[in-house]
Structures are given as structure tokens and as C-alpha cells.
Amino acid sequence: MLFSLCSLLSLFVDSIGAATLNKRASVSGTASVHLDVSTGSPQQLASGVLYGIPDQANQIPDKFYTDIGFKYNRAGGAQLSGGGWIGSFAGYQTRFRSALSNYHTTRKYGGTFILLPHDIWGADGQQASDAVYPGDNGDWSNYDAFLSQLISDMKANNMIDHVVVDIWNEPDLTAFWNRPQSQYLELWGRTYHRLQQDLPGCATSGPSFAGAPSASNSWWTNWASFITANKSIPTQYSWHMEGGGGDMQSSVAAYKSILQSNGLATNHVVNINEYGVWAEQVPSGSAWWIAQLERVNAFGLRGNWLSGEALHDFLAGLVGKPNAVSGYNYTAGGYWPTPAWQVYKYYSRNMTGTRVQTSPTADLRGEVYAVVGTNTVRLLVGSRAATGTFNVQLENLSAVGLPESGTLNVHTWGFPSTDDHYARLDGPTDLGLYGHPYSGNSLSFPIYQTDVYTAYAFEFGI
Ligand SMILES: *[C@@H]1O[C@H](CO)[C@@H](O)[C@H](O)[C@H]1NC(C)=O
Ligand SMILES: *[C@@H]1O[C@H](CO)[C@@H](O)[C@H](O)[C@H]1NC(C)=O
Ligand SMILES: *[C@@H]1O[C@H](CO)[C@@H](O)[C@H](O)[C@H]1NC(C)=O
Ligand SMILES: *[C@@H]1O[C@H](CO)[C@@H](O)[C@H](O)[C@H]1NC(C)=O
């Protein structure tokens, strides 16, 4: 989302505090792990961040990227001074240079960079109410000049490899596109073909709508029929999951159905290039998102709920530093890991092997992600900002070489947190071993999700 309203929203979430969040939703039911169904290798699909990378090279130390299997960054100099292209040429240069710096950092760690032209243009949510948009009054000359400058700067700076151009962010929100849908579709067609012509093979993504796919969403249905007729099919299909509702299985099913009804292939990369509301960006919600994204093989980038220079810092809430909230200093270092970062580290460093199929609780609030390693099975469990007791059921224990009945010694780790997203956590808490008797080739055990923050990891030998 990423506009000034969002910082209001995060203040609101902070002020309602833990007590209210605890009451917000409850989780119950059973999440299952199908040990006999492999779903391929883990790729840290969820380890991406929207903005969050400082423009000063090497400001956040290497390990904060490498230990989480960092995959994606998405940026375009939003909210930096000068207002972007529509402010002045200097405003354009400030934002392009910021994006270029973030691209270099992303490539240093082997990631892919998603470029945000709408922010470089200046439609970053903080533009004036009379700001101009591409194609106003049917005149595209200003936008054509903008694209010429951008493409020429990308070429001059060798900013092509591992770049995805995200044609326009959230045109379905007036904060980013306060113009008719028809003008957006024309922007899409023009930009797509211009990029193919001037940067052959350039990867693109879209529509990056704020709204998840749905047959009743005319932004989605009209866009899908437009790109079919216009032959402007992006490399990656992208949308956002930042409303605190919906889920990946149903939104991917809706996206496939919209594409199929237009005769389009459904085998492209799906990239949820903004996921997670503020309240979900804690260990348990992070585990929930990891399980959701891995299940449907979608990449994801953590949404960013900060503003101004802080938007360009903190890896979308994964790292903290002194004076993060008051007395903030953009270029200062002193970074530490947050509780959520420890979840991504465990996900990347420890959850190796082969993924196995899992399913969430029927209320969709309890989740489990699971991998079978050489001699250990590892589960990552969390809820979506919900409290309650739910179960994790391990099915087909014999599929990993265990007897059909006996006692399973499960090692539990906790990733605790509070509503202070910047708190320091140096590692998970060892919650010890527990021997669960089981029979019938399956074992169900309870998760006491007594707060909305804690994620759990469970490990057992095979
Ligand atoms: C795609 O749409 C753009 C914008 O309307 C238009 O300029 C272009 O000619 C269209 N291309 C095709 C192949 O229809
Ligand atoms: C901000 O941090 C940088 C880097 O540590 C330092 O050089 C600068 O003096 C700090 N600025 C303020 C206002 O403290
Ligand atoms: C994760 O793996 C590292 C490296 O093998 C190990 O030191 C650490 O104890 C593991 N963490 C947990 C929670 O199992
Ligand atoms: C896995 O367990 C289910 C439910 O107990 C059973 O129907 C299925 O046949 C089992 N699959 C294998 C490969 O054992």
C-alpha cells in the first residue's frame, strides 16, 4: 500500500494494542501435514521485501540478507524529496538513483529487483490532488518522454539483468491512480509494448492491484481481457494481499479462472509483491504467510507500513536499530534481528530438504509449513493474528520411515514477540522435548496460541 494513510493505520494498530488484537480473531480446528506428498524443494518464496533497503550501500550488514535467503526487493524512490518526474528533473534523478542503489544491493545478494515506475513518476500516494497522470487529456507525450528517460538510464546503468518492471502500482486505488480504468489500460498497453521494443526480453509484472483476483472485480476482468486482445501478457502476475482477509488458495484459484476464461496460460510466476498487514508482520503471522505462499508456489514480498526515510530502512520490519521510533536517523547503523527475522532465518537456514503438502485449519487462521530433511522433519506453525487452540495433525508417519504407532519425541522452539516490531530477538527459545504417544500412522498435537505473536517450530528425527 505504502502511502501516508498507511502510517496512520500502523499508528492505529499500535494504539489499539495487544489486548484488542488478542480479541480480534480466534483460531481452532486442525492443520494437517501430509508426510507422503512431496511438493518440491524450498526456495524461500516468501523472503522478499517491499522497499526497506537503505540507499547507502552496505548499511544493513550482509547476514541480515543472506541468512533469510533474500529473494526480491521492489522499489522506485518513493517519498524522497523532489516529487519524482512530475516534480522536476532533479526529483526524477533522486528517485532513479535510489532505485539504482536498491538494485545494486539486491543483486549483491542474488535477488531480483522489481522496479516501480509509478514512484519515479511521482504518484507515490503523497502527490498533490492536482498531480498529472500519464495520458491526461489524451496527451501521452510527457509519459513517453518519461519512459525514454527511464529506459535510457536503465541501459546506461546496466540495470537490466534480474529486473522486473512493475507497470503501475495499485491503479485500483485512487491514492496511486486517480483516473479512469480506461486510461490505465491504455497506459498498460503502451508501456508493455514500449518496453518490449526498447528493452527486448525485459521482464514485466502486473497488474499489482490492491484487490485480490475475483470474477466480480472489474479491474481484474477488464484487465485480463485487455491484455489478451492487446498481446501484453506480463512475465509475472502480481497482486497484493494487504487487507488482512482472503487467502492464497482461493485468490490463486480465482486468478486462474479469470485467465482461463480469456484463454491465457496459468503457468507464469505469481508474485504477491506486497503481503501482510502490520499486525501480521510478527512471528506467527509471518509463519502463516510462509505456509500460504509456499503452498501455492507464489513469491511474496513483505508489505511496508513505514513512511519517509524509514520506508527505505528496516527491511520491511525485519531488522531494528537504536532510535527506530523517536530520534530516528536514516543513515545510522547498529542493526539487530527482530523476532520476525528469526522466523525467516529458520525458514531459510533450517527448513531444508523437501517440502510436503500441508493444509490450514478450516477457519484458515492456523497454518503449518513443513519440510522433510535428511534425518529430521521440521514444521513452522503460526496463526493469522488470532488466538486459540488448534491442532497440528501429522499424517502418514510411515511415509518418512517411522513406525505406525509408538512415541514421537518432538522438539519445540518458540519465536516470541510483542507489538514492538523492532524489539531484538537473538534466537528462538528452546521449549524442550515432549514424547507424544500415537497410533494409526498419525499424530495430532495441540498448539496453544495464547497470544497473537508467537510462532512455533517443531522438529522430530526420522
Ligand atoms: C495495445 O494497447 C496500446 C494502448 O492502447 C496500443 O497503443 C497498442 O497499439 C496496442 N497493441 C496491440 C497489439 O493491440
Ligand atoms: C546519523 O548517523 C550517522 C551515521 O552513524 C552519523 O554520521 C550522523 O551524525 C547521525 N546524525 C545525527 C543527527 O545524529
Ligand atoms: C538451525 O541450524 C543451525 C545450523 O545448523 C543450528 O546451529 C541451529 O541450532 C538450528 N536452529 C534450530 C532452532 O534448530
Ligand atoms: C495416508 O493416510 C491416509 C489417511 O490415513 C490414507 O488414506 C492414505 O492411504 C495414506 N497414504 C499412504 C501413502 O500411506
Automatic annotation (TrEMBL):
Keyword Signal: yes
Keywords: Signal
Record-given protein name: Glycoside hydrolase family 39 protein
Organism domain of life: Eukaryota
Record's signal peptide: 1-18
Database matches in InterPro entries: GH
Source species of the chain: Phialemonium thermophilum
